[in-house]
Amino acid sequence: MPWFAGLFEVSAVARGTLFVMTGASGVGKGTIRAQVMGYLHKSLHYSISMTTRAPRPGEKHGQDYYFVSKEEFEARIARNGFLEHAEFVGNYYGTPREPVEEALDRGLDVLLEIEVQGALQVAERAPDAVMIFIVPPSLSELKHRLLLRGTESLEKIEKRLAQARREMEAAHNFHYVVVNDELGSAVNDFMAVIRAERLRYPRMREAIAQALTHDPEIDAENAVLEETIRKAGS
Ligand SMILES: Nc1ncnc2c1ncn2[C@@H]1O[C@H](COP(=O)(O)OP(=O)(O)OP(=O)(O)O)[C@@H](O)[C@H]1O
Ligand SMILES: Nc1nc2c(ncn2[C@@H]2O[C@H](COP(=O)(O)O)[C@@H](O)[C@H]2O)c(=O)[nH]1
Predict the structure, then answer these.
(1) Which atom of ligand 1 approaches the CA of 27 most closely?
(2) What is the pLDDT of residues 70-117, one digit of tens each?
(3) Does residue 22 lie in a domain region?
(4) pLDDT band, residue 6 (cuts 50/70/90)
(5) What CATH number should be reported for the domain holding residue 154?
(6) pLDDT in tens, 181-213
(7) Global pTM?
(8) What's the CA-to-centroid distance between 233 and ligand 1, angstroms?
(9) Residue 191: inside a domain, yes or no?
């Protein structure tokens, strides 16, 4: 059997890739995600998380998060309804399992934007997931961004910053690191990771199978060219 025979047995839809973006609170994950989704909204499914934190002004249920009670969240934990979940500075956050599995099965890539403990759970449960760690240019800049964002009290900002120092020690567990200094460069780097991952061999099996086919129109032109060259040489 030729080496490429298996290429033709590719299932109709290749499973999508799971991309996990993590990093300290305030590093710019949500900002990068919004831009990336602007470019890739047709091929990348953003997983909407569930949380017990109260909505911030302007945040919408079902768009920014599913805002639920502690009881509802714990009931979902009990029925294994999360791909991952974690407690972060006094609230629960989690990724509902089913929509992620469904999108991956449909061949869509999926993006999670989650904190570090949850990302490490995904790395263990889904070893094929692509893990991307976002870092700030400095801790001073991280604090500056949280202060300017103005969505948390000073006390909560200090808690998030203390957590950030611990989280950055976990950076070695991730495949890629993107520095979010200048936003445009960070978005480009993030997009480069997605582009490169989409060119990995398992995703390119159909392209290789296609490369081994013939096109009758080009074959006919080739025959004419061959004949012309042969005549010119005789
Ligand atoms: N490259 C950047 N330069 C300057 N400011 C930035 C940059 N990226 C994001 N910001 C700003 O920093 C603040 C925090 O960004 P964002 O909310 O996206 O962070 P996050 O990592 O999603 O935070 P959290 O984890 O707390 O949800 C926002 O006000 C955002 O506008
Ligand atoms: N483990 C998970 N972490 C999540 C999820 N959704 C969001 N997050 C992260 O929580 C913190 C705080 O978020 P905020 O909206 O209150 O600022 C931040 O790092 C988010 O990325 C999730 O489903 N699981």
Answers:
(1) 21
(2) 999 999 999 999 999 999 999 999 999 999 999 999 999 999 999 999
(3) yes
(4) low
(5) 3.40.50.300
(6) 999 999 999 999 999 999 999 889 989 999 999
(7) 0.91
(8) 68
(9) yes
Q: Give the residue numbers spanning the domain of 154.
A: 5-47+107-233
- Smallest CA separation from ligand 1 atom 2, residue: 183
Nearest to 128 by CA among 84, 169, 175, 196: 175
- Number of independent structural domains in the chain: 1
Q: Output the residue whose Cα is nearest ligand 2's atom 23.
A: 94
What is the rounded average pLDDT for all residues in the chain?
94
CA 158–ligand 1 middle distance (angstroms) = 16
Question: How far, in Å, is the centroid of ligand 2 from the Cα of 77?
Answer: 16
Residue 80 lies in a domain: no
